[in-house]
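User: I'm preparing a small set of examples for a lab meeting where we compare how different chains pack in three dimensions. I only have the primary sequence for this one, and I'd like the structure in token form so I can line it up with the others. Please keep the answer compact; I'll paste it straight into my notes.
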Amino acid sequence: MKKTLILLGLLFSFSIGFAQDFATKKGFLLMDKKEIAKVSDKRRVYTFSDLNDQELIKIKQVVLTINSRSRKIYYEVSLPDNSKTIVTENNSGKHPLSSSQKMFIDFTIGQYKLLSENGINKEVIQKMFEDDHSALIAELKTYEDYQADANRQRKQFDNRNLGFDEQGNFGPTSGREVRAIGRIKRSNIEVNYDKYEVFDVSGKSVAVWNEEGDNYIVFKNGDRIYLSQSNSSPSSTLSMDSAASIICNYAINKFDLKP
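Assistant: Understood. Below is the structure token output for the 259-residue chain.
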């Protein structure tokens, strides 16, 4: 009996922790069973309209995986005609299992309280587009720049006619032969946490990626470069694993690896 009461107490705490109960039914968004707006979604973009069918705003949730231990959730918010778009985190601190529930809650009790039992707050829409979001934009631009540089490294590796053999050696290829200028080793540390290490032909380590689970390549000279784990395919062959090509190319450029 005591265990049952504790369980019920936990469930009750979980329920009131979110304050509102959201549901969608026949195109309507319901808060605590009351219709407050109309909503439709297409390719993860939610369009919110008032109860008179006037489209007011579009919201898309974006999840940026930073490393194996952390991620950032933010929103791309647009006017109905897509004439203006901003980005905002608007994090409520709540974490329901459903991404749509997360969005509804964030826009009810987060910084921008767009949704309420009275419907959609148009003043909040105006404020979102007037506020300064440059800090988040700059942060996202940093990650975009990292990925753009990683893409250039992968392309340069391919343009150099470099490849891998089954032992992890990499270098110029001639048919199926690889003239080794270095070697890469992939090892699994834990679930979703893989370490890549690059060695020169003498066997000395010159670069390690993700050793701390932080998605950084650390070079022997102390330099650090972020590389998203979205580039890695540790269960694939090395030639199909973009992270392997990218890390090896960085090492070649930094240390002029040769046979």
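A couple of notes for your slides: The chain is about 30% helix and 35% strand. The first strand starts at residue 22 and ends at 25.

User: Perfect, thanks.
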